[in-house]
Amino acid sequence: MASSTTRVALANSARKLPKGAKLVGAADPKQEIEISVRLRAKRADDEQVMALGAQPPRERQYLSRAEFGAAMGADPADVAKIDDFAHRHDLNVKSVHLASRTVKLTGTVKAMSAAFGVKLNKVRYEGATHRMRKGSVQIPAELAGIVVGVHGLDNRPVAQPHFRRKLPQKGAAARAAQGGSFSVDQIAQLYNFPGGETGAGQCIAIIELNDIDQKGHPTGAGYKTSDLRTFFKRAGIPMPKIAPASVDGGANKPGHSEADGEVVLDIEVAGAIAPGARIVVYFAPNTTNGFIDAVKAAVHDTARKPSVISISWGGPEDQEGSQQFVDGLNEAIRDAAAMGVTVCVASGDNGSADMGADWDGKPHADFPASSPFALACGGTNLKAPNGHINEVVWNGGPQGGAGGGGVSVVFPRPQYQAQAHVPKSPTHHNGRGVPDVAGDADPATGYEIFLNGVGTTIGGTSAVAPLMAGLIARINEATTKKFGKTVGFINPLIYAANTQGVFRDITVGNNDITGDLHGMYKAGPGWDACSGLGVPNGEALQNLLSA
């Protein structure tokens, strides 16, 4: 291809430095870094995937992973242009993956900066130093429309884990709160999960993000096998097959990060619900390319073929955030749906604010739960004296956390929510309402897990994503036996009018965590932006999806 010197800004690639960030200096020009270049698809697929989701699973024609690669993968001619670009700019092509439309390039900070017309700086933010850029990525004019994302030049963290530890309480309050926690198995029974299946023959993918050092190497987040062994032994549940998978240099690194609680919670909850399933934990750095590449690695894993993915990480939607990151991750979740893979995502633990100390005073939906192709999982407070269920929206205030939920400012309202009475978004548009479903998430009524050698209680919508993933694995075992297909993208079906009795409606409470948003959002009859459609009755959901 003839080399043109005309450069254009890559659409949606603009970034800003976060408020409170301090410039330390230029990034080390000799440092070797790896980035992911995302290429265009052969055709737009949103409408086909939405139409697929409206069909009963029995009637669906999913693409196999091989068929997806052929129909929707990157064009080799486009890849050849990236090869030329890399050659001209002293970059190396590390890998090409046609199905996920991803080319990974390596090179020095100096070469990357020149190739993409960016200035990379060391920036101190929230106690850590990251490599950041501002403004847009520049690409040669002949690559416009071919390259749709360049991820990883900037390695600031993009997501938080959505788990909450139970708060220590003193005196009478502590005595009143005792016995408030549940074993995973007790929750499965209270929610009437189908009893005959264990998820046999299914693979559950769990996405986990590592803390990284200044060189981009993982420093923490992981699980100790000894904790898992003890948990399953105590629970009297056979331990499922569990394997860690490394993406973009990610690794199982327990003992150095608070996020160990996330990793262990996810595995223990999913594994207790579906001990017959294989669990693969995809570790990647907590960066834009790490998060996207981890989900893509699971979606396109031709060896293990996950049929359900659990994601308990996310962050508030931000109109000034990275649109190409949102596009890239949403595209990965949509591609999962096309192949019959369900993606369960935690909706957040900071209520409708979805932010902590640095809150801007506005409501926010959490992404990637706000992807219209994700099953967004919200939170409740569950009490069940003598098996009598009393369940309300989780809202323990700023200290105790609250279930995430709201209306997207990024994604328009999907057709399946047309009759759900979703309120207008904070920008006064028709947006995607979050969550879709809910389950026990209040740490005060949380899950009994085993972490760092001790039994402990953890909550958060983080627990609800693997809980639902385990349920979907059980249902997939049943539907695969019955008609040879997984249930995949279920949102259009669960919002349809014939789902009475599939969900227990949560009608009490709100997720206004600080009390400053006039009770936004309140629970009520039908769908709401704090508990979604409600808590699934597992057996009834299985009947709906296997009809």
Automatic annotation (TrEMBL):
InterPro entries documented for this protein: Peptidase_S8/S53_dom (IPR000209), Peptidase_S8/S53_dom_sf (IPR036852), S53_propep (IPR015366), Sedolisin_dom (IPR030400), Tripeptidyl-peptidase_I (IPR050819)
Top-level lineage group: Bacteria
Positions with a binding annotation for Ca(2+): 505-506, 526, 528
Active site: 262 (charge relay system), 266 (charge relay system), 462 (charge relay system)
Ranges for domain Peptidase S53: 181-547
UniProt keyword annotation of Hydrolase present: yes
Free-text comment on the cofactor: Binds 1 Ca(2+) ion per subunit.
Segments crossing the lipid bilayer: none
Record key words, sorted: Calcium, Hydrolase, Metal-binding, Protease, Serine protease, Zymogen
Cofactor: Ca(2+)
Pfam family, one: Peptidase_S8
Similarity annotation: Belongs to the peptidase S8 family.
Name of protein: Kumamolisin
Lineage per the UniProt record: Bacteria, Pseudomonadati, Pseudomonadota, Alphaproteobacteria, Hyphomicrobiales
